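Explain this one:

_____
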Amino acid sequence: MIGWLFLFIAGCSEIIFALSLKYNDGFTKLYPSIVTAISGGISFYLLMLAIRTLPLGTAYAIWTGMGAVGVAILGMFLFKESTEWVRVVSISLIVVGMVGLKLTHVE
C-alpha cells in the first residue's frame, strides 16, 4: 500500500513540476525555478520508491497519466485553455486507463 501512496504523491509533485515550467520562464525567474527543481526531484524520487513494490509499467503509466490529467485540467482554469468536449472526453479516457491499471494490479 505504501507504494501507491508514494506514487500518488509523486504524481501530485509531477503536476507542480509541470506547472512551474510555465512560470519559470526558461529558468529566468528564481522562485519558480526553485519550485521546478524541488518538485521534479521529489517526483522522481517518490516514483523510484514506488517502483520498488509496484510494477514499473503500471507505476510509470499512472505517474505520467496523473501529470497529464492534472496539468490539462489546471490549464483549463489557470491558463484558459480549451474546454471543448473532445478534450474533456480525452482526458477522461486517460483517467479510465489509470483506474483500469489500478484495478488489474494484484497485491
In short: Residues 2-104 form one domain. The CA atoms of residues 58 and 101 lie 6 Å apart. Residues 56-78 form the longest helix (23 residues). Helices lie at 2-23, 30-50, 56-78, 85-104.
